[in-house]
Amino acid sequence: QVQLVESAGGLVQPGESLRLSCAASGSIGSINAMGWYRQAPGKQRELVAVLADGGFTNYADSVKGRFTISRDYAKNTVYLQMNGLKPEDTAVYYCNLKARRPLGLRDYWGQGTQVTVSS
Fold this sequence. Notes:
Layout: E1 2-6, E2 10-12, E3 18-26, E4 30-39, E5 46-52, E6 57-59, E7 67-72, E8 77-82, E9 91-101, E10 104-109, E11 113-117
Parallel strand pairs: 2-11
Antiparallel strand pairs: 1-3, 3-8, 4-5, 4-9, 5-6, 7-8, 9-10, 9-11
């Protein structure tokens, strides 16, 4: 089993910053990638940012230049630094880990943490 424990989100005002963290533990094995997704009310879950082996990163266009993903490989922890937050960033944020398994990649998800941007 793999456990992903996310830090608490919170309520912030537009323009403020927030950092999320997600620590992985358990029978992780080899990690292909760690990242963040989000889901706003009435919308589908969408990719926010991903950091894969070799340092490859991918960001949603809506967060480029504002959000930064990073990873502490020794601690199996991924971070999402969110600057210049906007009301449209309001969503439940989910941590994702893609682990290599004999039959391919397997996805693991955190429990989700609410981020609300409002004045």
